[in-house]
Amino acid sequence: MTFGVSHLGHFLLVNLLTEKIKVNAPSRIINVSSCANSQLLPREGIDFDNLNGEKGGYSAMGVYAQAKLANIYHVKELQRRFDAEGVDLTVVSIYPGNSMLVSSLLRTFSVAAAFWDACWNMRNCRLLLREAVALKNLETSASTGILCSISDDIVKGKFYSDNTINTDLVHEEADNKKLAKKLWVVSERLLADKM
């Protein structure tokens, strides 16, 4: 369910709207990701043989992190495809801040359970703790999305956080074109009856 809601739903929506978006170019697509993409996954990134976390011990945060890296791959591959077609579209991914600390009605599991799951899976304690203590209100969290929506200085295909391009919180495999293309093919296959 996590991968479906956090990635496949976005993938399907963008695919269904692509022609309308192209007609209205210049346009922008902003995909919300998370620092979990880099902090809660191993170096190899997405486990394509375990997208739903059915093999081995289930980790809610691990499955969530895979979906958030999938958001970034989707943005990168989508931008490459638009650029190859010569369409003036800007596609970026953003991290608005720690969603467990931002007021939200979307909490699906307890904060304590998520904390222990994150601790078990974290790779860079310093960065993850920095993000965990960075309390953000709704206005601060929304600012990166607003900036990416209206600024003329946005760089296509990049990952933004705190109103700037962020390289600390993006997975080291985020620019892997082969994996981004593989995710695209897998996503299309999983949604074949919907597209």
Pick out its properties.
four-stranded mixed beta sheet; 195 residues; 7 helices; single chain; 4 strands; Rossmann fold; globular; alpha/beta
| Low-confidence runs | 100-109
Morphology: globular
Q: Using the coordinates shown, work out and report the CATH topology.
A: Rossmann fold
CATH architecture annotation name: 3-Layer(aba) Sandwich
Strand order of the largest sheet: 1-2-3-4
Count of individual helical segments: 7
Number of strands: 4
Characterization of this structure:
With 195 residues, the protein is an alpha/beta fold. The protein has a single domain, classed as 3-Layer(aba) Sandwich (Rossmann fold). Helix content is 51%, strand content 9%. The chain is built from 7 helices and 4 strands. The chain has helices spanning 2-23, 36-39, 60-85, 111-121, 125-133, 138-150, 177-190, and strands spanning 27-32, 89-95, 159-161, 164-165. Strands 1-2-3-4 form a 4-stranded mixed β-sheet, with helices on both faces. A hairpin with a 2-residue loop joins strand 3 and strand 4. The chain is globular and about 45 Å long. 33% of the residues are buried. Residues 100-109 have low confidence and may be disordered.
